[in-house]
Design a protein that fits this description.
Layout (H helix, E strand, L loop, with lengths): L2 H61 L10
Amino acid sequence: MSTETIAIVISTAGRLLGLLTTFFGAFAWMIRRTDARFERLGERIRAVETELVEVKIGIARLEGPPRRLVPAR
C-alpha cells in the first residue's frame, strides 16, 4: 500500500467516526428533549385529573342523595 492510500483510509475512518459521534449526540439530545416534553405533559394531565375529581365531588354535593318517598300514614 502506498502512503496516499493509507492516508485516505485513515482520513475516511476519522470522518466516519466523527459523523457517528455527531449522530449519536444529536439522537441523545433529541431523546432528552422528548422525555422532558412528556414529563411536563404528565404533570399537566395529573393536574387536570385532580381538577376533574374536584368537579365530580362538587356535582355530587349539589345533586345530593336520592330523595326517598315517605309513605303516607
